[in-house]
């Protein structure tokens, strides 16, 4: 009897991924009403879940390899070796090798931090989004100001770094034609923005092709260096020397080597930009960590190996380190002028490729910040608009291109470099702090990647960055502090009074792995 009565009572719906069948014992009308109610509940739940996440507006169409191609192009190892490394060679001579080794160690520590944060929050906004999401629970009030300071630092990068890179092409374009470097830089900015506006998959192919040419130039350096190496030069790697007066070599103090680590850190910078393409990278979010870590490994190898070859293969370390263009002396002394002209053309192409990749990355940061309402209403709407055909943030892309072109034509290279300040070091420090707090607050508990030996990587990274920060000039420090101050004031005056209507970041768009898991059979 009890069994019969219980069998007539409708069983409660199964909890989990929805209800496939209505309970037994309902009439036809009741079944229809029941199914309608279930559909309404599921629709409401999906809508609420959608409100807490970003919409998938960008085209998730590149692989991990495509992400790495674009990221490495933004790092531009060839331009780093030919334009940035000579600064270290002139100051530290063969000690440049140790400076780049120490910078690689800092790079590994920071890559671990970026990888863990990016897997949990694969958002195209990159660093500011990682910082915002790291502060949970009792630390939540810090999320707004800390993340907006980080965004202000990146606004500095967005405004000035593309123009700095584009202007660098003028030195090497001289082998083709005698053109004012300002015009060369402006043309590169406009052309690069035009390419960057197109589909991300197309850009991955373009940057991959240019990257191949770039690596050829580094291979030429490597072969020339190792085939002309000498025992004395090999020894100088661990006993640094630099050219002095009358063509003699003078020892380099270890403190001088450490001071030049800041230059090497800047040379490697860009490997973490893989997170800016996370909303366009196919597969699970763990792929973003793979892209970051592999980008760092390839960057270090592509810069440190040819740089080492140049040092050990230089016919005269004294002459090379005192030369106005050290790499020109090296190539011409170990081969001929024609090869230098060929390499110079490859460097111009590498710089063009770098500007494309940097504009791609920065446009996505602007797009992401616009959808987070960092700007006044209409501006945020315009900057967050996605081109219907190319699925790219085309307005931020063109804005960066035009701004860069104007700066190339009107502002000197030295001024642009000074305006970037020491912002890079400050940005690294913000990420290290975020990686320190993310675990205790539970921000990265759901992530599929955890850095080894936490909290040592962020702590050691902060220690190294702290030392590098003390080695910056007072002008660069002032520029950076002013930039951070502007970001904090803007947040307090413009963002905070809106009480969550602006800069209230959402969870990342669901990646393909989660879509597959939630999809019905």
Query: Can you tell me the overall shape?
Result: globular
Rounded to the nearest angstrom, the distance between the terminal CA atoms is: 39 Å
Q: Could you estimate the helical fraction of the residues in percent?
A: 55-70%
Query: What ranges have pLDDT less than 50 throughout 5 or more consecutive residues?
Result: 1-20, 43-50, 514-521
CATH architecture name: Up-down Bundle
Structure description:
The protein has helices at about 1-10, 30-50, 65-75, 75-90, 95-120, 125-135, 145-165, 170-175, 180-195, 200-225, 230-235, 255-260, 260-270, 285-315, 315-320, 325-335, 335-370, 375-385, 395-410, 415-420, 425-440, 455-470, 475-495, 510-520, and strands spanning about 240-245, 250. By secondary structure, the protein is an all-alpha fold. The chain has one domain (about 60-495): Amino acid/polyamine transporter I, CATH 1.20.1740.10. The chain has a two-stranded antiparallel ribbon with strand order 1-2. The longest helix is centred in the last third of the chain and has 35 residues, at about 335-370.
